[in-house]
Please model this.
Amino acid sequence: MENLLIEHGLKATKGRMEVLRALQTATVPQSAEDLIEHIDSKVVSASSVYRILSELEHAGVVNKTVRQNAIATYDLTHNHQHFILCSHCGKMIPTDHCPIESFEKEVARKTGFKVTGHMVELVGICPNCQQALADQSRSHLCT
Model:
């Protein structure tokens, strides 16, 4: 992690290292609030987490994605993944691959743009919520 910061022109401070460790161990992108919950406030204050995330984003170390629920989440730049988000409970599950890469190349070729990234967010209803909704619907029919 220290080398990653240095490669991007940043000093390896305790705060940055803590935020990166938390992002590295997470299985899904994290909001600032998620990180604040998991990082010792004696090491990094809540306001510092927001500042550090901004610095890391501007340096290209993390990706910031504003989800459809308007919450910004962060993940390490080299962790290119897409997710499906349950619109009922907020559960987020990674998908297996990125179907956009070939499309990016085609768009770049046709437009002359250098594509630097993309955002894809699938939204649906997870199996647990589908079951809960079906149960709820059945209970209303019985009354």
About this structure: The chain has a mean pLDDT of 88. Helices lie at 2-7, 14-25, 32-38, 46-59, 101-111, 127-142. Residues 80-143 form a domain with the Dna Ligase; domain 1 fold (CATH 3.30.1490.190).
